[in-house]
Design goal:
Layout lengths: L11 H6 L6 E5 L3 H8 L4 E4 L3 H4 L11 H13 L5 E5 L9 H15 L3 E3 L7 H8 L5 E6 L5 H4 L10 H15 L3 E5 L3 H10 L3 E5 L7 E4 L1 H4 L17 H17 L13
Parallel strand pairs: 1-2, 1-8, 2-3, 3-4, 4-5, 5-6, 6-7, 7-8
């Protein structure tokens, strides 16, 4: 009799339990094939609203809709089996009230099968986080550079310098105390990210923060070199797939034009 090994998917409590231990590898994924690859190597997959730019070519994440997040979230959950999948709540889906946040978070979890949601904002979101967590919704927070607020922040600027460090510390503590299992810390000074990591109970996931964070996350397209014209300073490029893909597509097109493209292996008879 053949035996099927059951793979248990990681949960928010599993990620929280990793606090202070081996660093947690995390990446974004938006599609089925990338989800399957990331799942083999990472403990947390974020279906980020960064898909607005990487998949849809939008100028920012502000135009991303709940339906877009659900569609991509479902694909990622379906084609992964071991990593915790977290789906971003898009701009306008949770800020109005805690009831609105619960209604939309419940829809995301029910329609995608994800294990947690992520929302942006500091201390002012603590009440909403507490409301969600008490009703069974695991929440990953996000402070520092919060892309959904880029218009209010005045651009993609480094956060946490000078007096702003105190605000970020207060934001992190408020989210952790409200029940977030983790907090993403984006594009901050290394010193404040490291300080937050040592002083809050939640795990910290850095993106342009500090190696001292409990985990790290990057946009998968950035580490694969899919956009040669845009390279975040904090993202190491591990492969130049954008360049390789461009060459492959160009070679195909050239062969077709020259009628040198090889005949298909399976041809159809008249």
């Amino acid at each position: 009799m053949s035996q099927h090994k059951t793979i248990r998917r990681k949960t928010a409590p599993d990620i929280l339990a990793a606090k202070g231990g081996e660093a947690i590898p995390c990446l974004t994924a938006y599609t089925a094939p990338i989800a399957a690859m990331v799942d083999r190597h990472c403990d947390l997959i974020l279906v980020g609203d960064s898909l607005g730019m990487t998949v849809y070519g939008l100028p920012s994440t502000v135009g991303v809709t709940l339906d877009m997040m659900i569609a991509h979230g479902r694909a990622v959950v379906t084609h992964s089996e071991r990593a915790l999948v977290v789906v971003d709540m898009p701009f306008g889906a949770y800020e109005e009230s805690r009831e609105q946040a619960m209604r939309n978070a419940a829809r995301v979890m029910a329609e995608t099968g994800c294990g947690a949601i992520k929302l942006e904002g500091g201390a002012h979101m603590a009440e909403t986080v507490d409301f969600l967590v008490r009703r069974g919704v695991p929440v990953l927070g996000h402070i520092g550079l919060t892309p959904q607020s880029v218009n209010a922040l005045g651009g993609y600027k480094v956060q946490g310098r000078g007096a702003d460090a105190d605000r970020l510390m207060a934001d992190a503590k408020a989210l952790s105390d409200a029940g977030c299992f983790g907090v993403v810390i984006e594009k901050t000074t290394a010193s404040i990210a490291a300080k937050i990591t040592t002083e809050i109970a939640a795990v910290t996931i850095g993106i342009g923060g500090s190696p001292a964070c409990d985990g790290q996350i990057l946009v998968v397209d950035d580490i694969l070199g899919m956009f040669p014209d845009f390279r975040p300073k904090f993202a190491k490029v591990y492969a130049e797939l954008g360049e390789a893909a461009d060459k492959a597509i160009g070679a195909y097109a050239d062969e077709v034009r020259a009628r040198t493209f090889p005949a298909p292996v399976h041809t159809f008879k008249d």
